[in-house]
Amino acid sequence: MPKATLIRRHPVVSWTSAAVLLASCLAGCVASSAQELAAPPPKPLAPCAWWYGIGKPPTSQEIEQAAKRYQVVVLNADQGTAMRRLHQLNPRVKVLVYKDLSSTRNYPGAVDGGQDAVFLPSGIGYVAAQETHPEWFALDVNGKRIEWQGYPKHWQMTVWNPDYQQAWTDAVVAEVKREGWDGVLADNDFNSLSHYSSAVLAGTANVAETDRKLRDGLDAFLAKAGDALTNANKLLVPNVSETHLVPGRWTAHSRFGGAMEENFGFRENGGTGGLLTFRGNEFQELRAQAALGESLLLLVTRTHNAREERSGYASAALLAGPRTCWTRATTDDYRTPEWSSLQDSGLGEAVDAASRLPNGVWSRTFSHGWVAVNPTATRQTVVPPDGLIAPGAPPPTTTPTTAPPATRTTAPTMAPTPASTSPSPSTSASPTTTTTPAPPPITLEAADAVVLIDPQQLVKRGAWRVSRDEFRVGRLWAR
After folding, report:
1. Residue 148 has pLDDT above 70, yes or no
2. What is the SS3 assignment for 19-70?
3. I want to staple 17 with a disulfide (CB 3.0 to 4.6 A). Which of 13, 78, 96, 448 is the partner?
């Protein structure tokens, strides 16, 4: 694991409604400048790309590529030079600095020669806390400090302590303003300590009370840090965990610029169930945020195979909005700048809201394609629009006298359909017409998805980039 990295391995409306939500946002901006009011509303484009670049220092080549490819980049605090180079190459890229909310660290790189590093992965240095505020280290019921299991030299801090919250906020806001970051990616806004330690906090009776103390502390912490960063015209984007368990938590914690879901499109029950993101209230909260288009949704899908990649990207497309960004993650340590061929598919702009069929399958139509996601734990079928193909598939051939053949996707299977019958010959002299057969239904396995595109209206990648200029429209990006 890179020294400045913390990776969690635990599993964790119609279109009219969306328009109403967006309209309400615009109506609330009456006091804004005339220039803002004259700007067109941001478009619900297919998910943009972002880079969680905390695994290792980026190379010059990776920075050059990132300026062309990504709309949001997250870097470690010691990569200020790379951040400034990104801004120089593409001023529209939002570059956030990684900071941990819940721990301080004393591994080499965070502490060197007995001194805290100048640029920290946390808000408070280990040495500074040790020397001046040892009470900021959380203790268990036995009076011992809590070191995170699997992450040596990561120490749990008292996130509920107002003094710790203020000190973290003051230090981080000052650094972000001084160095020129666009905001903060705040890691470990977690739901339960149990993913890092079985310890019970001093002053609590059990794990449930420990977790409640931490959640309540983080609620207050986010409010304090978020207000301060907002006043400084900076973003706060916390990495919020397991929001399907606590209704309203995603909405509350994303209100200062957005939020990150590190286990988006995760398959529950050890990989045998449905998609966890669609459980509880989380998906509805994500949809509402995406429709408003005022804050970032930074989505990460762990991808070990093509099915996980499809389901992750297509699920993100269901949430497509002006600020919805998705990335796959093929490594646990985020050492690779990621890209999926699905991000080159050219879906275009969403023309309706995601809708749910009675069998549980979700689908959404785009100007140049269509996606469907089966988040359930059982096989389901869905009928696609006519004339679409899987990205990368050869376009169908047609002749003046024959209808286009039905197209088969490469991953989900197509269910057989009965042979069609030809109409009886007409006795009149009117010309014969050819009826195009309806497309056969697609069978989607549990937790699988399909992405289809219009072969006649593929959007070239360069044009897609130009359309992404819409990404910066709105008050959030005028900061």
Report:
1. yes
2. HHHHHHHHHCCCCCCHHHHHCCCCCCECCEEEEEECCCCCCHHHHHHHHHHC
3. 13
